[in-house]
Amino acid sequence: MTNTAKKWYEKAGNCGDVVCSTRVRLARNIKQFPFPSRATAKQREAVEQQVRDALLSGNSILSKEFRFLPLENASEEEAVSLVERHILSPEFISSRKGKAALISEDESISIMINEEDHLRIQVLREGLSLQEAAETADRIDTLLSESLDFAYDAEFGYLTQCPTNLGTGMRASVMLHLPALTESGAMPRISSNLSKLGLTMRGTYGEGSKIVGGLYQLSNQITLGLSEKEAIENLQSITVQLMEEERKARAQMSEDIAWQDKIDRAAGICKTARVLSSSEFMDLLSYIRFGISTGVLQGISTEELNTLMINTQPATLMAKAGKQLDQNERDVLRAQMVREFCKKIKE
Questions:
Q1: Average pLDDT over the chain, rounded to an integer
Q2: Whole-structure pTM value
Q3: By the 8 A CB rule, do 105 and 5 touch?
Q4: Residues 6 or more apart from 284 whose CB is under 8 A from it?
Q5: What is the mean pLDDT of residues 217-222?
Q6: Which of 27, 184, 227, 243 could make a disulfide contact with 169, Cβ separation 3.0–4.6 Å?
């Protein structure tokens, strides 16, 4: 992709000190085809063609913004980089045969074809933007439904391969940076309470992934028996409460000289390091993000930190370099990028 349009992850949106991003995803299946796991290669190919035609041949202005990517044509680095940028799911690229994606110019919208379901419509936004993301997803859903006959049941709602997605077929989530609540030991209690409210807290890249750099993905668990509007409002309400708790904890910790020292040490390492692994940098970045949000550090913006975080991920580094790099070469290149960036930090 050669365009220079600003990507969604290069921005800092509403409540960006705590909420890194918002995602709304819709699962849909076309009535006349079996689910992808039961479909033949020919049927999956037909699904791909129908979805592509429905979007790219539409009269909507949205149809002009997408590129079509058959996953079999993507290099390993490009595919993994798309996961690092949260555009595609890890499961989607694990087996790429018979799969494709439609991706918008700013990478805020992606449609995964032949994932677990025939379509996964995904909308990403910077910061806390649940309502806007849901409205965009609904517009795309409506546009596609003009040409595609989605599998729907009057009692169960949209039919999906996994029963946990029945009903609205919608999963909404926010990516939260919660270093203070993590350090205080509050996260196990919070996660337990969230499950009682129909929400779940997962790792940075969703189900089964680890917590990296204090980043958590909070999403709705229930898709059957409540409307999309109710699910969005519930997630919004809980997110606001978590933001308030995190900000209070940060305010207390930022007055502690021990925490100020951790933040300054992180900035110092980033200014001088010659080798930086991805995991070490994510931990250091968490402290720097914390320092910027509390005023302990100055000179750089959350928007710039978001861009740096994405550009220093392993596969994205190689994709931008245009060549294979071993782990040591990546760690050296990452450190070089971080050193240059962190010259602007004022302590």
A1: 91
A2: 0.91
A3: yes
A4: 266, 269, 270, 276
A5: 90
A6: 27
